[in-house]
Fold Adenylosuccinate lyase.
Amino acid sequence: MDEELRMLTERLRRESGGTAAYERLTGPVGQDELAAVLTAPGQPLWARELAAFRLGVAGDRRAFEALVLLLNHRDPPRCASAAHALARLGDPRTARAAAALATNELRVAYALHPVRLLVELRAPESVPALITTLRRRLKPHDPYRRVALACVDGLGTLGDDRARPVLNEALAHPPLAEAAVRALTLIPHQR
């Protein structure tokens, strides 16, 4: 079993109380039945999350909206499982949605997983969104250091020369300086 699925099912088993509905959704169930859970009224959050995750990793785009909502959830494990499923979904809207979430200043406290997803996707939206998010985190006393660090690391991983100016700015911030040096070494020099 995939490690992400194992962690998800353990967490949701506890959340659901191990009900018959939980056992049914973790068993051999068809994609149409999983999709119905996403739209049926009165479904608990754990059931919607499990259905969306299973559909997402199966490449069923009916899970897209539910997964994007979960990517922006206040609970980090939900965000992580949604990011995992979205990375495997193959929906062309995913990078745009992740970029919108990563750059939304009203939701910056929940931007860590969208940032990491953008790095994994390596989409055209990834570098501009990470640059924008990091630049906003370079204010004095910004409380979202983990988001800033994820942006620095991600920009290094992506290795795009457009990131040089913001990474050079990050050098002046002690909590980010070491990571910025590493990231800058990963960007090939232009000749």
Q: What stands out?
A: The domain at 1-91 is CATH 1.25.10 (Leucine-rich Repeat Variant).
